[in-house]
């Protein structure tokens, strides 16, 4: 479904590569957590799958196609296979919930009858069937993220990419979002989620691909994640400076 063959991405020749010789494969129907410290390359991985960016060297295949070799008129075809969710929701502020989701179908030229059927269905999947007429500013952060997931899922993409989808949400709300992603996964969508949230990773126990400085440090099935504890390091440093 997604294959990286010795992929390196250099944004800026004066700094180290964002991804450095990454080889991995994600099969249809998997749920994969992409973890690692800030700057380790998680968002870059996702951008390369979407062809938001191109690899500097190596090859990225999505649904069997080398994405770098797609002609520009074929990129929209690739993106139809992908739903994407971000940390900051990215909803259209002057459209209500229904219209935000419907918009994703309208841009693909879907018929109104189909839209009127599919949008309520997906809003039910994310638990927002009663809020179709609300505007984004009338929703909580968790509800806004549910709308963003509904929008990403309404065209039934083969792959859902989620870049820190719970990054702006409190723990309870985050669990609600994970339930929705889990349902979408169980309906057959391959899910790749970049996250810092070790509680979610440790509880869900899915495949974990851990990046560090652009390289794969670890790739394990049904795994957990123990990030380097920067809080503890910071506290210890502060205590030492108090003693002095
Ligand atoms: N558009 C860009 N131009 C230049 N450098 C970039 C760009 N995007 C990312 N980088 C650099 O590439 C490296 C990897 O960044 P990336 O955003 O992929 O990491 P990340 O793991 O997603 O981080 P975070 O968890 O903070 O979102 C970092 O050193 C970053 O500064």
From TrEMBL:
It is a peripheral membrane protein. It is found in: Cell membrane. It comes from the Bacteria. The keyword Ligase does not apply. One of its GO terms (biological process) is cell division. The keyword Manganese does not apply. One of its GO terms (molecular function) is ATP binding. Residues 220-244 are annotated as: Disordered. Its main location: membrane. This is Cell division ATP-binding protein FtsE.
